[in-house]
Amino acid sequence: MWSPLKSPHGQAITPGWALALAGLQAGVVGGLSALLYLMFDGLLRDEGVWVSPNLLAGVFYPGKTLSLKFSSATVSGLAVHVLMSGLGWLIFYKLLAHFQFRPRMCRLVGLLIGVTWYYLTFRFFWAQMNTAVVLYQPFPGVLFGHVIFGICLGLYPLHVRTLQQSEPPGQGSPFS
Question: Whole-model pTM?
Fold first, then answer.
């Protein structure tokens, strides 16, 4: 039976797997939030909702990169975005885990991680993998999307607290 340990400050310490799940949850929520913003930004710029996912899909479907319509390539672009945001969490996981009891500092570190993730992915990775992403995504919109991603990562202690309060699968659970 799982029971949280206590820190010297009286706060519950969760096992490593719970911290990993909370971080993954923060990364995916951040990625989806950033994606929603980028889709809304495309709508505001009169380019369409699916521009950002279609640009990311250019890795797998080079001919459909500049499409404004929803297609099977769009689904792969959405998947790439969620995968990259989960990967972003994985790279910085240990850094955020140190701040699980300091929510303000975690939000600041999350914001810095979002901006760092922008420079790592947008300026280096996408410049090599798919230059259309770098050429056709507007600068302030993409940077602000990564800021949203970082803010959501900064909510990591909230996800940890939610997992601490939830009951793990036990005897009364259909999953035990």
Answer: 0.75
